[in-house]
Amino acid sequence: MKRKRKIPLVVISDVHLGTYGCNAKELLHYLKSIEPKTLVLNGDIIDMWNFSKRYFPAAHMEVLRYIIKMSNSGTRVVYITGNHDEALRKYSDFILGNLELVDKLILDLDGKKTWIFHGDVFDSSTKGYAKFLAKLGGKGYDLLILINSLVNWILVSLGKEKRSFSKVIKNSVKKAVAFVSNFETTAAEIAIEKNYSYVVCGHIHMPQKKIVKTNQGKVMYLNSGDWVENLTALEYKNEKWKIFYYKKADFVLQEIKEDIPINDIVTKILSS
Known about the structure:
Layout: E1 5-12, H1 24-32, E2 34-42, H2 58-72, E3 76-80, E4 94-96, E5 99-102, E6 105-109, E7 112-116, H3 128-157, H4 165-172, H5 174-193, E8 198-201, E9 208-214, E10 217-223, E11 232-237, E12 240-245, H6 264-270
Helix pairs in contact: 1-2, 4-5
């Protein structure tokens, strides 16, 4: 077994536990391969919008258990609330040992101010009546991922490459491209005004690392992507950020065969 990589800071987001599109087993393999000093869960970790007691596989629960195990072993775990797990916002600023629940996080990384938040505050579709439509869209997205998985299984069986329907939509539909661009620009501009060196978001499922410049200055904009399509994380080490892309071949796969019943505490939180 490979030695765990020691990393000062790891950021993951948009895991969407409790949905068909979540790659929980792959995330668990990744978490078991690292030893972070701080692990930031940057929103939409548990998908409460689409949560159903009928679907919460063993691998999904095992991810939660392992994260708690990491906190018990000395890793600082910071859970930042997102729109799909916004029900947890009423518990913000809760601290239990090495586990913290917050709405945003400010860090000093080697003398550079870093602003980490999910990013849904910039998205009007998560507010008011539009929120209802967004929830319907979330269920449609989950169905799209399920269909995509079936199509990819057929493509692989035929010796062809996998395809991502949602990536095609995001990269080709003008409104989707404009939304991503506006999201990144807005986050960067506010960060520059606040004199941050780094701004780290999630929400849009688009891994990114780039320098954004305006008349007021510049900032490095980063996005941790997701564990539905891209299977990515952000890692900070030796004063440098990098986007980690999960590759199945790099891990020893250990199948989780046995269903684990949902913990009573988790059930209460998810159904609140």
